[in-house]
Design goal:
The chain is of the alpha/beta class. It is built from 13 helices and 14 strands. The strands form three sheets. Strands 1, 2, 3, 4, 5, 6 and 7 form a seven-stranded mixed beta sheet that branches. The protein has a five-stranded mixed beta sheet with strand order 11-10-14-12-13. A hairpin with a 2-residue loop joins β3 and β4. The radius of gyration is 23 Å and the shape is flat.
Length: about 400
Amino acid sequence: MGFTIGLVGKPSAGKSTFFKAATLAEVAIADYPFTTIKPNIGTGYVRVECADKDFGVQCNPRFGFCLNHTRFVPVELVDVAGLVPGAHEGKGLGNQFLSDLNQADVLIHVVDASGSANELGESLGAGKHDPAKDVRFLEKEIDLWYASVLWRNWKKLARGAQMTRKKIEEAIADQLSAMKVTEDIALDAISETELSGNPDSWSEDDVKRLSVVLRKRTKSILIALNKIDVPSGLENVERLKKELPDIMFVPCSCETELALREAAKSGIISYVPGDSTFEILKSDALNEKQKKALDFISAFLEKNGSTGVQQVLDAAVFELLKYIAVFPGGVNNLVDSKGNVLPDCFLMPPKTTAKDFAYALHTDFGKHFLYAMDVRTKRRISGDQELKHRDVVEIISAAK
């Protein structure tokens, strides 16, 4: 699948409900700490305005699906054990939690915006806890995790690099390769923190400052403010946005989204994830309790525009990381050898060039790249030209 989102947060914040709503996978959901012991792994989707409507055709995705010309592109979701203060020291299920996050491209921190539980996930009642504390503590724990991994062997690492004449950024990348830290990222972080001189003389505080930058470059965090269906949750949203203006927040109600998706799966309603409305298909099959629930959900959607769950996923990929969606296609033919129209859609990092995209399709296409074609305009694209969101591109290669 190629893109992984880690779901993080303290116990009982709603991570597993978010995960089930986004994937409809069967997971344990309960109002007590550490419901999730082993990570749940499933498939979620991000929404892209499909390129098919620009060509007057209907696509046939090989992966994901397309509804009303809205393409749902698959991403891997990993729901890990709840995080508590001191996790970087092994408290709670800290060590397991942190190692489960290694390969995540971005983190979604699910926060109980209603303030219903303390930092350990123990129930207090709505409005009894300040969710701003949860936002900051998790970021700090992950920063300290990076720092602990780096500082643990720092003296040996720094001296070894000096003895072998290895650049310090190379040694850092080797040490933190599991967290997707590259030499370029390490070099940029060193420059940003203005560290210089012999790395062996850098203090623990120096390494902590460096670790914060490394974490931000490799584990960006978006905050999903869950439980806005609870009055105290909605009240806290605007306050948090003002108190923490440097953080990206997306309000949501995971329980509401889960109810909609399960009703749609049962054929009771028609619902496209992320939409502001739904259509009841089997009103005669509803009992009074179900009718009241759907009335509540309808009023919620009218007030808030959506449940927010789909918007959380979309924002993490396209706004926070600024990824783009690119469709492979042909200037003279949008159909593959099996008759599928625009079967693939790739999520690519910002500043992806035509040649980068060729490599993403196949190594040989990249090695033998000649040029690319913009399928919409039928214009030639050079290898170093950056692609745009929703581009449809044909790669011309000398590969056999």
